[in-house]
Amino acid sequence: MDQVLNLFRIPELRRRILYTMGLLFIYRLGFQIPLPGIDIGAVKEAANAVGGSSLGGLFGIMNAFTGAGIGNAVLFSLGVMPYISASIIFSILVKVVPSLEALSKEGAAGQKKINQYTRWATLPICILQAFFVLVGVILNPNYGLVPGGASFAYGVTVIVALTAGTMFIMWIGEQITEHGIGNGVSLIIMCGIVASLPSSLQAFLSVAEQPRQMSILLATLWAATVLVVVYITRGQRRIPIHQAKLTRGRRVIGGSKHYLPLSVNQAGVMPIIFASALFMVPNLLGAIPGMDWFQRLFAGGSFLYIVVYCALIFFFSFFWTKLMFQPDDIANNLKEYGSFVPGIRPGKATSDYLSFVLGRIILAGATFLAVIAVLPTLVTSNLHISPMVAYFLGGTSILIVVGVALQIVDKLNSFLLMRNYDGFMKGGGSGWARRRG
Question: For the structural domain made of 1-11+206-437, what CATH number should be given?
Answer without folding.
Answer: 1.10.3370.10
